[in-house]
Design a protein that fits this description.
Blueprint: H1 4-8, E1 21-25, H2 28-45, E2 50-55, H3 65-78, E3 85-88, H4 97-108, E4 112-117, H5 123-135, E5 143-147, H6 150-154, H7 156-160, E6 165-170, H8 172-177, H9 197-212, E7 216-219, H10 228-240, E8 246-249, H11 255-262, H12 266-281, E9 287-289, E10 292-294, H13 296-311, H14 318-321
Parallel strand pairs: 1-2, 1-8, 2-3, 3-4, 4-5, 5-6, 6-7, 7-8
Antiparallel strand pairs: 9-10
């Protein structure tokens, strides 16, 4: 069977397909619960629908960075083989950065889905991160970076072009606070972050840079974590108007709204499946479908709808399910 990925996807999918939700936790009890919830939801949906990122930057107490790094190593190594576990280390200018990477990547790098590094300012910063990861023995570990300042956003295309980077995230609260009061606090809210011109510009720059270089744009947090409606609205807007294909969660209650907002609906899935099935029957030559011409350009789009449906745990029609069946042994 010829797989659509092999036929259709070029630079646009260079970073691969990541779960649409990246869930952060830094306190031991919450990290353990997050890993347990990931396993439960993987069983429920038949796919790993969110990453768990164990947080050292905000999770480690001052002076306790080494103990916290050892804790996340233990949790990563104890996780199920099918789990997707990542770690956010301290930024490169923090005294604990080198030790974080040496300990965590050196001992658990083989179990990590990626390494998140905050406050990245340039491609040169990524070079330094990559050198530390390589020295720890994990040259193949994908790097995710967090852009949190006007200067970093200015260099978003340069950073996204770096071959070691898989995903760029936007750090909303640090970005707003870096403007010295020029952006009001409303710019950090679930509504204000989509209306203030400087914040909107930053989000669009990051998303555009990612799509230009085949990387995954990951949307920032919604701090009103108990407001499910605000979470759902923000996730939909980030996905449908700003081009983000992944989003941060900072509370377990945010995971399902993100999955719902970033998932295609049943009609989209059904239509995409029919078009891909017809394309496969035509050996990927152009076809007429319900009075419209389709070729490999549109096939790519409809295949990505199916991929996103799988990533969000949606039930796929049989013609689409067959592309995700386990390989025969």
């Amino acid at each position: 069977m010829t797989h659509p990925r092999d036929i259709l996807l070029g630079a646009q999918a260079a970073a691969g397909f990541l779960p649409v939700c990246d869930h952060y936790s830094g306190v031991e009890a919450r990290m353990r619960k997050s890993l347990q919830l990931q396993a439960e939801m993987s069983e429920e949906f038949g796919a790993c629908v969110f990453d768990v990122t164990l947080d050292c930057e905000d999770g480690a107490p001052v002076g306790g960075e080494a103990d916290h790094a050892a804790l996340v190593v233990g949790l990563a190594l104890q996780a199920d083989d099918k789990a997707r576990v990542a770690v956010r280390v301290h930024p490169i200018d923090h005294p604990a950065f080198e030790a974080d990477v040496a300990t965590i990547v050196g001992q658990a790098g083989r179990r990590l889905s990626h390494l998140m590094v905050p406050k990245v300012e340039s491609a040169q910063d990524v070079d330094r991160i990559a050198a530390a990861v390589d020295a720890a023995g994990a040259a193949e570990l994908p790097l995710h970076v967090l852009l949190e300042s006007p200067a970093a956003v200015h260099r978003a295309f340069e950073i996204a072009a770096h071959p070691r980077v898989q995903s760029l995230s936007f750090g909303l609260m640090d970005f707003v606070s870096s403007h010295g009061g020029a952006i009001p606090a409303h710019g950090m809210s679930s509504q204000g972050q989509f209306t203030h011109p400087l914040v909107v510009r930053a989000k669009l720059e990051i998303a555009s840079a990612c799509h230009a270089h085949g990387k995954v744009p990951s949307h920032c947090v919604v701090t009103e974590f108990r407001d499910t409606g605000a979470m759902l609205a923000a996730a939909r807007k980030a996905s449908r108007e700003f081009g983000y294909t992944r989003m941060w969660s900072i509370h377990p209650g945010q995971i399902r709204p993100i999955l719902e907002a970033l998932a295609p609906d049943e009609r989209e899935i059904e239509n995409a499946t029919k078009i891909i099935a017809a394309a496969a029957r035509a050996d990927w030559a152009p076809i007429s479908f319900e009075g419209q011409l389709h070729d490999r350009a549109s096939y790519r789009y409809f295949w990505q709808v199916i991929e996103r449906a799988h990533q969000t745990g949606r039930v796929l029609p049989p013609d689409a399910q067959r592309y995700f069946a386990p390989a025969p042994r």
